[in-house]
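Appendix B. One record, verbatim.
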Amino acid sequence: MAVVGVKLMKADTQRSQPTFQVHLPSDCRDCSVINDPVFLGENGREIYFHLRVPTDQPVVRHIRVDAGGVRVGAVIVEKDRIPFAIADGEVDFDLPVAPRARSSTVEVQTSLEWPGIVLRIEHAFPDRRGGKYAAGDFPVVQRAAALNLEFGLREAIRNLKLDREVMSRGLGKIHLMGFDTNNPLGHEDYPPHIHMILRWPHFAGSQAPHYYIGDQGRLLPGVSVTIDGLPYIQTTQIGKGAWVPAVDYLAETLYDTLITGDGGLTLRRGGESCTLEPLEAGDRGFAAGAAVHCGRGSDYRVRASDDTEHGEVRVLIEGRPAETYRYDVDTAVLLSAEPPLPGKPKPSEAPRQ
């Protein structure tokens, strides 16, 4: 059996609380809707649900959904728009079945990749907020801070040539990530944080440190480290003022990190280091940008922003042309990158949603 996610995109963005109903074809006796609030619901942009379906056929034909009077503009399965029809007031479509470890339909993340580095951007749509972010103040400052910290760390990694080392030695890649605010499949990702993970070539065993971000856009003291793929290993708590080692699969420390006393971050490799601190004074911290101070007079001033209304991430690093990454606001699939990502064909300029 496979779990396949489906989103019905609303033609008009609104939170309407429809009473939608999913009707499965009678000839698919093993098909079922996962009746768990994590797997089905609605928000201002979409109705979503997940089906458990057999994998012995590539398509389940004639899934029908009564959308509760909501006008549907698109049907998305995983990251693809699929054909659909409206018949007798219901949405009718054929469901493609592609077995995978985890459905990605409700995730709204864009990954950018360079040699040795993967940077993942979790897009914080206020009208998709869920889990522990569903109520209260939306973490606008923390999400902006996470984005600047990720791109600031990218510059520090490059300055210290860590990206080259992980590639030349086959140690995997360094993953930079923020946090989801839409609770995809129960991944609450709370409280706000970033990761800098030395992800081993075979995933399991990699240390995943959580660097927590406060409401003033600075890092909080203390780091929690979990282990990828091994959920029953107890989380390690690393206290204030202690270095956090990144150990490779050969049991060697490749680099380590330290949260500074003023909520910045130092990345150290051997005798060299780079320190990130907020670009401006004030109570927004890294949300205003990141200043990256490395040795030998190498400094970088980083400002990154994510326009979720138009699907555009823009990165400004002083002294360089701007970087622009456009993505589909319904799926988070990357549409274009300027400059183009290395080793990737330049995505065609699709109409922005």
